[in-house]
Amino acid sequence: MVRDIHWFCLCLFDSRFQPRPVFSHESRNIMTTTLPDLLRRNPVMPVVTIADSARAVPLARALLAGGVSAIEVTLRTPAALEAIRRIAGEVPEMILGAGTVLAPQDGEAAAAAGAGFLVSPGLTGNLARAADEMGAPLLPGVATASEAMQAREWGFSFLKLFPAEAAGGKALLRSLSGPLPDLRFCPTGGIDAIGAPGYLALVNVVCVGGSWIATDAAIAGSDWVHITERAKGASALRTGTV
Ligand code: 3PG
Fold it and tell me: Which residue ranges form the domains of the chain, and what is each CATH number?
């Protein structure tokens, strides 16, 4: 009985998940970019961890100068929300996501700070429901066929494969493309400039994520020239057919 009710509730909220535009929470203006569009925009989505919010704006500008127009700022430092706030306020052309969203309150805080989309390393029913209720686009993490099927049941067709290399990497993605041909992935975790092209050549990969473009050390050292150069290299990569 309890199981039946649980299943009924899941079905109810399944039907509400639809692709939605990325939103600018501060203004509540709906941008025209949807999650699939923003993932297709750049071959590489930098995953950045910002320890000092004073570096957030120069970092975003350095990435933009290299042709990168969408980033994931992880919620792993005390400075992360302030970093998101500053980028949203001062670099509005950057499409700004919050990563390491583990629970509904993380998503709420990130959206309130100005994040336009959310990225999570995994997916729970609570998080899926909260993102839907907030109207926040969510790129949820999966690492297995079962997790991908669960996410698919809940209406997610663009997924983060995480941790990509540890979970099976390109071989796993090739294997998933047979039974789950409608799903598209942004593999992240353990990928670098050398490995990225191999992932981008796969038919079910829309972009890759990674920290190699703006490493913690490069950000801490305000090494903006280096970050722009790496962003240019990443921007020049090409995706397969997606
Ligand atoms: C992460 O969440 O840490 C991202 O997946 C980045 O992983 P990477 O540092 O291995 O690129």
Answer: 43-235 (3.20.20.70)
